[in-house]
Amino acid sequence: MQLILEAIREAGSRLLSPDSDLLSATWRTLQVSGTATFISLLLGVPSGVALALYRFPGRIFIVALINTGMGLPPVVVGLFVMLLLWRSGPFGALELLYTPSAMVIAQTLIALPVVAGLSLAALQSLPARLRLQLQALGASTLQTAWLLSREARLPLLAALMAGFGAVISEVGASLMVGGNLRGSTRVLTTAVVLEASKGNFASGIALGLVLLVLAYAINDVLTRLQQRGRERKS
Amino acid sequence: MRMKLLSLFRPTQGRACQILSRPGAFLLTGAFFLAAAILPGRSLAADTSRPVVFAVGTSTYDTELLDLLLPDFEAETGTLVKVVAIGSGQALAMAERGEADLVLSHAPEAEKAFMARGLGSGRWRMMTNDFVVVGPSSDPARVQHAQSAREVFQRIERSEALFISRGDESGTHMLEKRLWRLTEHPPPPAARYIETGQGQGMTLRIASEKGAYALADRATFLIQVQVIDLEVLYEGDPILRNVYHLIISSPENGPRVNEEGARQLARYLLSPRVLGVLEEFGRTRFGRPLFVPDAEPFNMDAH
Amino acid sequence: MTAVRQTVLEIADLTVARGEHFQLRVPHLEARSGETLAILGPNGAGKSTLLEVLALLRLPDQGKVSFLGAPVRGHRQRLQFRRRISLAMQDPFLLSGCVIDNVALPLKLRGGNREEARQHARFWLERFGIPHLSERQAHSLSGGEARRASLARALVSDPALLLLDEPFSALDPPSRDGLLRDFQHALTPHTAVILVTHDRSVALSLAQQVAVLAAGRVQQVGSTEEVFRQPACETVAELVGLETILSGPVTACEYGLCRVEVSPGVGVEASGESVPGDYVTLCVHPEEVTIERQSDPSRTTARNVFDARIRSITPHGPGRRVEMECPFPLVALVTRRSAELLALKPGEVVSASFKASAVHVFPSRHAHD
After folding, report:
1. Contacting residues for C281 by C-beta, under 8 A, at least 6 apart
2. Is B130-240 in the same CATH topology as B52-129+242-302?
């Protein structure tokens, strides 16, 4: 108990005068997870929409793949990306292992199935005849997809939140492909692992609190947007 | 057509017409993150030579020694060092695959085998400290009275006490296995022998929670001593000497081994300046230095 | 001044399979400008499938669809045609955003200039009496308002073909009647309307042509008058609201007048040609059944007069629906006023009469029952 109180007190003082390590890990977390979420949004939402709206051969296979991917353990993704990025691996020449880019790649692979799967569900939650209505008002294929996505933007926002939540809290893949390099690939979660392994629980708690506040702040903004949209709707 | 559609949903006059989704703003935010993620990498890459991958035992890594030493090196040479914290055995395996350029290891037997196979282009002693046997202060196996490390392990084996092993092919783990071999008995049965597969710090904390014995390097023990309930119960046998070596991976090991960078880094780590830092490292916090500098002079031709 | 009626959409020999067990077949259907064609059918008749074909969103497995004289084939061309079609459904499906942007949407989808689109939209909002709602959030409208906005949106693109899928149903009667009126005034003579509905009263008030669809087959196509007066079969008769449907053998037939034994010893006289011994079905229009306290042969020319026991009296629109037994079941629609004047009560025996010409006869599908 003594230890916990002490750790919390120390964590508080570390937060009040944040050092460069804390700031850099925080910034890197935002950067890596933000980029990964953004890329998985760019790729995941259109594929989710396409899977919801069109029937084509192999569709079921892809949907099953996405559903599997949604539950994929980050360490497995990390291992897979590491094998690809190794110097002796197929993309070794890029020398990406232990860089933030490698973490972005791994986190994108983690977030992508989540975003695509939830986008698919979001579009499927729309009334089936809405699509007929839009097409019959003269919407082309692309216009229909765009208008439907716009109608489903609240659940799509939820997909974004879930994707971001999956990567900002992830540690296994980041550790594996990022290597937890100080000032470069050290993000909040990997820093927590390190501090805990060093026995610096106060620092670990401080980092954990930052992570919590960060995740909360971002989800708070998104939830506000979403709920405001909902109020308008009703 | 897309642009036209975008303009369609831009908010119009009146608050009531404001539309939530603003793809423009969203794309801009995303592009900002994207640029932010790419740009630092680029600016670093522009003025530097290729980075060195430096595989280091977790116990060394946790001391934060490298956090103290490397920034100067990176600033002076412009060479980025990617430190990977990993057990000594795994570190050597990485070097063998050509994934690591320089290794800081404390597993002399494995290192000798590594060099004998021609996998390294150089090996230098850098520093030493020692291993200690830790356990609960009650000392149920009475190892405090042992005359040698071999006897310590015999006593643990014969007692009912629990032993926590790293189980990760680290230098510590390799020494532990060597000690069990010396007892001429197998390690205790599974019920009394727990492999953590984790770093030294975590292993010590598990031992502390379970009131068990463990083998640890002195540096990690000192770092953890505040948060664990274990004591040094045996020390001093010459076999417990912990020697750290730097090993440069041979360019034969893989097409992208950065031997030049590894050599630069090794030369720096063996320089009098670094050894001076080592002499003081940890003194203020732990009352004694964590490592004893004991460097062989860096000479590439000698190996 | 009658506009020349142009064929906008024509389908011929159409077959569309839906699932394994359902097949829609339409031998011929034609929508002409300035005319409303109602497709009347119960749930599961294939109306939705037909609607998709009519909206050019589904190509038939077999058969020909032509739009303004040109056969409909490729994807690109279909979008060109589709942009001359519009649709309003029972669910208004307004998108989030304000009303005027919703109404302007079809024009913007067609690449229209934003301000022009809004001007057109405003015009149509006025025609449907809701210009004051233009800046309101679409999702905050009441059911009736949303239906108006949805119809305005359907008409804003000045479609050659307007498809309606029950846009007037599930509204309270005053707003429904008001909407029907406004809609009829808003229609332009060059627009062809196809109304898909199960509600015969909407078909009656809007359509000049009716096609009855049941179990994937077109049962009858004709003018509204013809279909409602002379249903081709029992299914159509049921759908157009002829509740008194009887059947039995023809016992006599001469001078265009047949006698049908609808229950042992009870005969109904009907105008029409048939052969004695034929098994036929006949139906009686409920509006044409007269109820009196006592029969007065000198005052009626009706050939069919029965003593009828009243089983129930229920409100039906502005009037009353009276179910009787005489002894076959007979339904009459009377005005509220005459129901009150006659002081009708369940259980009482009255005299019910209808003319032979109010009876419609067609060959029975239950010949061997």
Report:
1. C233, C234, C237, C245, C246, C247, C361, C362, C363, C364, C365, C366
2. yes
- Give dist(CA B128, CA B218) in Å, integer: 10
Q: C337: how many CB neighbours lie within 10 A of its CB? A: 11
Q: Are A56 and A62 in contact (CB under 8 A)?
A: no
Q: Does B46 touch chain C (CB under 8 A)?
A: no
In chain B, residues with a C-beta closer than 8 Å to the C-beta of A104 are: 37
Positive or negative: CA dihedral A227, A232, A233, B3? negative
Structural domains for chain C: 7-239 (3.40.50.300), 244-363 (2.40.50.100)
Size of chain C in residues:
369
Contact A148, A126 (CB under 8 A): yes
**Residues B90 and B110 sit within 8 Å (Cβ to Cβ):** no
Q: How far apart are CA B226 and CA B245, in angstroms?
A: 29
Residue spans of beta strands (DSSP E) within chain C:
7-18, 22-32, 36-40, 62-67, 70-71, 85-89, 161-165, 192-197, 209-214, 217-223, 244-254, 257-263, 266-271, 279-284, 290-292, 304-316, 319-325, 329-335, 349-354, 359-363
Residue B13 touches partner C, C-beta closer than 8 Å? yes
Instruction: Return the percent helix, strand and coil in chain C, to nearest 5.
Output: 30, 35, 35
What residue spans of C141-233 are helical by DSSP H? 143-156, 173-186, 200-206, 224-229
Q: C82 to chain A: which residues are within 8 Å by CB?
A: 135-136, 138
Q: Report whether C364 contacts C234 (CB < 8 A).
A: yes
Q: Token match 């986008």: residue? A: A119
Minimal CA–CA distance to A199: which of B203, B283, B170?
B203
Q: Hey, where are the domains in chain B?
A: 52-129+242-302, 130-240
Rounded Cα distance between A150 and B104, Å, is 55
CA atoms of B141 and B129, how far apart (whole Å): 25
Give all domains of chain A, ordered by start, each with its CATH number.
Answer: 2-233 (1.10.3720.10)
ipTM: 0.79
Alpha-carbon gap, residue C336 to C352, rounded angstroms: 17
Asked if the C-beta of C115 comes within 8 angstroms of chain B's C-beta atoms, the answer is no
* C-alpha distance from B22 to closest chain C C-alpha (Å): 13
Cβ-Cβ contacts under 8 Å between A and B: the total is 104
- B12 contacts C111? CB cut-off 8 A: no
CATH superfamily of B130-240: Periplasmic binding protein-like II (3.40.190.10)
Query: Which fold, B52-129+242-302?
Result: D-Maltodextrin-Binding Protein; domain 2 (3.40.190)
Sign of the CA dihedral running C352, C354, C360, C364: positive
Q: Which helix (H) or strand (E) holds A178?
A: helix A172-178
- How would you write the pLDDT of chain A (234 residues) with one tens digit per residue? 676 787 778 778 877 877 888 888 999 999 999 999 999 999 999 999 999 999 999 999 999 999 999 989 999 999 999 999 988 888 888 888 889 999 999 999 999 999 999 999 999 999 999 999 999 999 999 999 999 999 999 899 999 999 999 999 999 999 999 988 888 899 999 999 888 887 788 888 888 988 998 889 888 888 888 777 666 554
Judged by CB atoms closer than 8 Å, whether chains meet at C114 and B1 is answered as no
Tell me if the pTM is above 0.95.
no
C332 bridge partner residues: C322
Tell me the CA distances in angstroms from C16 to A130, C8, C52, C53, C234, one per residue in order.
Answer: 22, 21, 11, 9, 25
